[in-house]
Amino acid sequence: MSRQHAELELVDAGVRVRDLGSTNGTYLNGERIFDAVATPGAWLAFGKMNFRLWQEPAGPRLESGDDLLDITIVRQVPVRGPADIAAQLSAPQGSSLLRIGGLSEGDRQARKLALLIDVAKELSQQTEVDVLLDRLVGLTFQVLSVDRVAILMPGAGAELESRIWRSRAGAPAGSWRVPRAIARKAVEERVAVLIENAAADGGLADGAAPQRIQSALCAPLLGKQGTVLGLIYLDNLGSAHSFAEEDLEFFTAFSGMAAVALENGQLIERVRRETVVLSNFQRYFAPDLVRQIAAQTEEVQLGGAKRRVVVLFSDIRDFTSISEKMSPDEIASLLTEYFTEMVEIVFEHGGTLDKFMGDAMMALWGAPLAREDDADRATRAAMAMQQTLVRLNREWKGEGRPELSIGIGINAGEVFAGNIGSNRRLEYTVIGDAVNTASRLCSEAGPGEILVAEPLYVALGEPPPVSLLTPLPLRGKTQPVPVYRVDWSRMPLQTTPRVGSKIPTLK
């Protein structure tokens, strides 16, 4: 039928039929018409679709405006229950290795379709990729009488690597491999490959002869954008020409369903991983940094590595005596407002909030995102903190709230940086002598002071005005540590770092 084939109009004598220029024509009782009236009992044909014109018997009718005809057609269609693949299988018939029977060709086709539907159901229930791949191999052995099955997945490089090997005879994993030439052909041409006689096919015999491969099927697992998600391979060692064309057709459809399930599984795992990253890290990292971490393809792992970072500690001076004069609600309100401003400054300058420690705060630059100007960013953030606190104290004084002052210590050096905790709860932090030195400088800093260690000062690209202090003896250090005090009051108001810094890379 054409998309706009004919027009029907109810008239006194019956139904008026007008053909609308259809390709396959409109027929009344076997004769082609262009405009005619069909009476009850007549046969109408629209292309190859035949209808009998029937008049509804007299009786009650539901009225809706001027429409007097309201018929509900009920069709009972059985709904298939859970997948029961084993119940559909039987011994292979003819030259096919597919475990499907059938009394006729039509019955066999219907059975194959039902089997594919159940395969799709079974695979769609697996949301973990490793479990999905294992079930895929099991289904392959279940529905096809083959000797070996392997699944290849992308490795660290461009080559596909064997993820699962399995042999019906129980050969140990790694004792055989997929012939490289066969896998390359399937991947490069994006087609399912049927090898009827591997030993005789010079172009595809690479690696097949030593393994006594006679016949093989191989198909790429293609994603929606045509990307190769993996490769499924199966073979027979017994005889050549053991696969029929019917097996290739079924295997092509089978691998297509497997690819859809695999892509969905990878998507679910990626969403699950991003959820873990966001829940663990969004309180500590700037929003753009969290998005970059979540976009990484690798899992967030426990552990870490040595790297050079900048560490900043800030601490409110005499907060214990100040808090003794305040109620718990007032303390919580004051600290919330104070920390909100300080954390925003850290994020604006590309830093990472490591942790809160009572009324103290620890932030770092260079992990997990490294920039060439991390030392400058941290120093500008420290100056912005002191300048912001001056503004907050003016506002709080008008509200009758106490005045706060903070001391800040900054240092740079090599530390251990990484994720510490459990698989359910990770905390990104740094550990090392450079961290301890920054913490001790913060303890030595007086109200309104920013003290920086020499490694930090040397790393500054644009050092602010500083005063060299007498080297400080710090606990745990055999020699006094050279220290500089930043004269932040002589600097203009610090804001977000200037545009033009080198684009960071996640390491």
Quick tags:
Tumour Suppressor Smad4; Beta-Lactamase; Alpha-Beta Plaits; 3 domains; 8-stranded mixed β-sheet; 11 helices
Provide structural commentary.
With 507 residues, the chain is of the alpha+beta class. It has three domains: 1-73, Tumour Suppressor Smad4, CATH 2.60.200; 94-269, 2-Layer Sandwich (Beta-Lactamase); 301-506, Nucleotide cyclase, GGDEF domain (Alpha-Beta Plaits, 2-Layer Sandwich). The chain has eleven helices and 22 strands. It has helices spanning 85-88, 105-124, 129-143, 180-189, 245-281, 287-294, 319-323, 328-348, 374-398, 433-444, 454-459; strands at 6-10, 15-19, 26-28, 31-33, 35-38, 43-46, 49-52, 148-154, 160-167, 193-195, 215-222, 228-236, 303-316, 352-357, 360-365, 369-370, 406-421, 426-431, 450-453, 466-468, 483-486, 505-506. Strands 13, 14, 15, 17, 18, 19, 20 and 21 form an eight-stranded mixed β-sheet that branches. A five-stranded antiparallel β-sheet has the order 9-8-12-11-10, with helices on both faces. Strands 4-3-6-7 form a four-stranded antiparallel β-sheet, with no helix packed on it. A hairpin with a 2-residue loop joins β14 and β15 (360-365). The radius of gyration is 37 Å and the shape is elongated. The model is unreliable at 497-507 (pLDDT under 50).
